[in-house]
Amino acid sequence: MIIAPSLLAADFTRLGSEAARAQRAGADWLHLDIMDGQFVPNISFGPDVVAAVRPHAKKLFFDVHLMCGKPEILLEPFVHAGADEIIVHVELHQQVTPLIWKIKSLGCKVGLAINPLTSIAEVQPFLDKIDLLLVMTVNPGFGGQSFIHECLSKIQQADAWRRERKLHYRLEVDGGINNQTVAECARAGADTFVAGTALFHKRNMGAAIRKMRKIAHDNDPTLADLKV
Ligand code: DX5
Ligand code: ZN
What is d(CA 10, CA 113) in angstroms, rounded to the nearest whole number? Predict the structure, then answer.
């Protein structure tokens, strides 16, 4: 189970030390939400900020989530900034296949994200080409939103396809993830959990990460089989 704090919820006046805090707290990944003000109605931070944060969290896997309308011009800057994975949105339609190949050609892991209102069928053509599927559980653009429970069936469907087709993509969820919703998502088949508010807004981030990881582990159906 992977716990990935989202830097969007961190103190923007101290992003380097916040990334270091996440690393000390035992995070597995750092989730970096890149917003361009076009694809989503918000602007966050760019490759220079990611490059500045990178040395403060050398051990963390940088999971870069591009909520951008023209990600093709941002791929190399984010790889050079230290991205380990780049996630693009399936709502970019015809751009998706060339984006996946370009990200792979840069030696980076590739993720595909899907918004709450988009049919899960849209990701089917790409499942054998990606390292990670990100099922958004809020409409992208802002942290601190409420979890959309209707997305659980999409997680279940993505997990079923993974098993049926013997594929190995990670199943990530993002938005409104806390100690209640992480259990529901783990039971649905998710294995990678992005959380901003629920982690960065806690004074004891280490305890919050350990608790979230335990709840995810305790609700992992694949482990339940082993417990009997
Ligand atoms: C929303 C972002 C999420 C968000 C999660 O567009 O993709 O990663 O930062 O924040 P919380 O966990 O506060 O909902
Ligand atoms: Zn995100």
Answer: 22
